[in-house]
Amino acid sequence: MKTAYDIIRKPIITERSMAGVADKKYVFEVARNAEKTEIKRAVEEIFGVKVKSVNTMNVRGKNKRMGVHEGKTSAWKKAMITLTADSKTIEMFEGMV
Question: Which of 37, 38, 68, 94 is deepest in the core (most CB within 10 A)?
């Protein structure tokens, strides 16, 4: 059985994701096999907020080279979380804006 902390891996901290914090939109890296309902339940459990919608995106790994050695970065899944208007904000992101 997966716990909420197995589903939500880490927050994505970029300029674009921080621009959405004012509108109560947050971006997280999630487990590749996680479904939208599981992600919603995990965010509500961990942060104590009400989730309005969850949008997900599979990010493909990129090909990388280091001299003659070739490799590939890992593929991962991104979740864009939108909170309801009456929900509180996620405190982890408050000092970063």
Answer: 38
